[in-house]
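Re: your question about FAA hydrolase family protein

S., sorry for the slow reply, the queue was backed up all week. Below is exactly what I fed in.
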Amino acid sequence: MRLLSFHHNGKQALGLRLGDEVVDLTAVGLPATLDELLRGGPDAMAAAMKAGNTARTRLSLSDIDWLPPVQSPSKAIAVGLNYVDHAAESKFEAPTYPVLFHRFPSSWVGHKQPIVRPHVSTQFDYEGELLVVIGKAGRYIGKDDALNHVAGYSVFNDGSIRDYQFKSAQWMMGKNFDRSGSFGPEFVSADELPSGATGLRLQTRLNGTVLQDANTRDMIFDVATLVSVCSEPFALQPGDIIIAGTPSGVGLARKPQVFMKAGDVCEVEIEGVGLLSNPVVDGD
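Result:
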């Protein structure tokens, strides 16, 4: 099942994508956000599928404005240095425990929406990543049970302001400029992908040039491990997200360095999950 959040005729809605069309689930009485639908548990997800199969009114994808699939997660946990080659190019040892930081919802936009290079920096970098959506609450989740808590997956561009990221040992500043990252295009339920979303090709392209090309099987900490570790300090809730880390090929590590600028288009594509595309603009 592929669900997306969107605006149409000035209203926010949740939709089920069927090919190039979308069924407006909100119009038939279901919640307006994926967050709320996930909190309804398996029965709500089943109702979404049933409504999608029976609803006659559909919209064209070309007529909607895309929103991030999840609107207000209680927690958005990002993972750093989760591929050996990326840790090496960043001059770090491969971690033995996940490097975790927080990413705020104000720092990302949806599919086809512009991401913003802040005027205070010229080091606006791309990072293509797999995103994990929690569907079942839990704390101290064992690794063997962790995938039962995953509702599905999406794509994330962890846009990073590099000079601010490394002003201190904490990465928060460089990872949370408003509208610097993106999330989408849609939510793909876990049953449509391999277990743990492993074995999927991930590419990041800037203006059509491939700059990152990797596979999710190469993550140091797989999805089950990340869910288990993240559930130790706090209970994970439906709608929480884990942004699972980027592979090598980031602009900071290239010689010469490659950073995003106004007029560029950045695409992140993960096999079976989708293609997330965003134009780049300059901030005020």
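The first strand starts at residue 2 and ends at 8. Residues 114 and 173 are 20 Å apart (CA to CA).

Happy to talk it through on Thursday.
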